Amino acid sequence: MEYRHLGRSGLIISEIAYGNWLTHGSQVEEEAATACVRAALDAGITTFDTADVYAGTRAESVLGRALKGERREGLEILTKVFWPTSPGHNDRGLSRKHIMESIDNSLRRLQTDHVDLYQAHRFDVSTPLEETMEAFADVVRAGKAHYIGVSEWTADQIRRGHALARELRVPLVSSQPQYSMLYRVIESEVIPACEELGIGQIVWSPIAQGALTGKYLPGKQPPAGSRATDDKGGADMIGHFLRDEVLERVARLRPLADEAGLSLAQLAVAWVLRQPGVSAAIVGASRPEQVTENAKAAGVRLDAELLARIDEIIAPVAVTDPLKTHEMTPARRP
Q1: What is the dihedral of CA 320, 269, 156, 78, to 10 degrees?
Q2: Residues 38-68: pLDDT tens digits?
Q3: pLDDT grade for 27, boundaries at 50, 70 and 90
Q4: Which of 34, 41, 2 is nearest to 20 (CA)?
Q5: Radius of gyration from C-alpha coordinates of the chain
Q6: In this structure, are strands 3-5 and 12-14 parallel, antiparallel, or unpaired?
Q7: Residues 171, 144: contact at Cβ < 8 Å?
C-alpha cells in the first residue's frame, strides 16, 4: 500500500480506501463484511469510508464492530451526513439540529469518540450554508471530527463552503465525487477548483460499480449474483454503464491490462489514481479476495502511451458533462 496527503492537509490516508456502500448490512452478511475489512487491513488499507444512510445505519454499525480492537490512531474513519435515517422531518439535511444529532449517532454506531473526516453527503439547498458550516465547525471544536469534507458538491458550492470554513478556521479538506474512466464529470470544474483550494478527491466507484471489471459482456445477461442483479439498489446504479456500446469498449481494454500485468479492475483503479487531484480511490467488495486484488493497484504507474491508448478506446463513451455534478444536488430535502 502507498499513502498520500489528503489534499494539502497534514492528514495522510491510504491511496486505496475501503468503502461499505451497498455491501455491509445489505448485500453481504456480517461475517463476510468483517472478512472484507480484515482483508483491507491485511493489504495495508487504513482508510475506511461509510455513511449514516448506508443500509439504513447498519453499515456504520457493521464497520464499527469489524474495526473493534484495532489501534484507533492507526485508522482514518470517514462518515457522512445528509440523507434521511429516520422518519422525522428534521432527520435529514444539513441543519444544525441534524448535524449535531447525527454525529453523536454515527460515533455510537462506529464505537469511537471521533471520526477523522465528517462529510456533507450532498449540498442542502434548504439550509443556509452559514448554519451548516458553523455546525460542522462546532463538531470539529468538540473533538468529534478532525476534518470536514463534502460529497458531490459543485465547484461553486465547494468554493463557498471553503471560504466559510476558512473564516471559521476549520479544515475543509476533501471532496468525494464519483470518478472513473467512464464517468469524468469532475475533470473540467471540480478538480481544478479543488486543486486551487488544496482540497483532495476521495473518489467513489473507480470501477464504475463493476462495469470496468470485464465480468459484464455485450449481448449477455449479467452474471447471477452480480451487482447488476441486485434489487437493493445495485442494479439501478450500474444500469447506465451496461449498454453494449460501453461494454464492447471495456472489452477492448483487456489486452492493455494484460500488457501491464493487471486485471481490468486494477487498471481502472490505477487510472483513477494517476490523476494528481485524487488522494484516494474507494473500493468496495462482497468477498475478501476482491479487496486483496483491487488493493494491488496501489503504487501502479501507468505510462503516457498506455494512458493515451485507454483514452482512445474509452473517451467516446465516457460521461464528461460537468452539469451532471449539478444534478447531484437535490432540489429539496429528501
Answers
A1: 150
A2: 999 999 999 999 999 999 999 999 999 999 9
A3: low
A4: 34
A5: 19
A6: antiparallel
A7: no
Say what angle helices 244-251 and 304-314 make with each other, to 10 degrees.
160
Domain boundaries, the chain: 3-326
**pTM for this structure?**
0.93
Report the alpha-carbon distance of residue 26 to residue 33 in Å, rounded: 10
Residue 83: all three cell numbers together:
440523507
How far, in Å, are 47, 55, 91 from residue 86 at the CA level? 27, 12, 6
Residues 6+ apart with CB under 8 A from 75: 46, 47, 48, 67, 116
Hunting for cell 473526516 — which residue is that?
117
Q: Which residues are catalytic?
A: 54
Distance between CA atoms of 220 and 273, rounded to whole angstroms?
Answer: 30
Q: How far apart are CA 289 and CA 315, in angstroms?
A: 30
Instruction: Supply the CATH classification number for the domain 3-326.
Output: 3.20.20.100
Residue 218 pLDDT exceeds 80: no
H/E segment holding residue 137: helix 129-141
Q: What is the pLDDT of residues 168-191, one digit of tens each?
A: 999 999 999 999 999 999 999 999
User: How many Å is the maximal CA-CA distance in the chain?
Assistant: 55
Cell 471495456 locates to 250
Strand 115-120 vs strand 76-81: parallel, antiparallel, or unpaired?
Answer: parallel
DSSP string, 60-122: HHHHHHHHTTS-GGG-EEEEEE-S-SSSSTTSSSS-HHHHHHHHHHHHHHHTSS-EEEEEESS
Q: Which residues contact 94 (CB under 8 A, 6 or more apart)?
A: 81, 82, 120, 123, 124, 127, 131, 132, 135
Handedness of CA 222, 225, 226, 229 (dihedral sign): positive
Our measurement of the distance from residue 98's CA atom to the centroid of its chain's CA atoms, rounded to an integer in Å, reads 22
User: How many other C-beta atoms can be found within 10 angstroms of the C-beta atom of residue 306?
Assistant: 18
Q: Which residues pair with 283 in a beta bridge?
A: 18
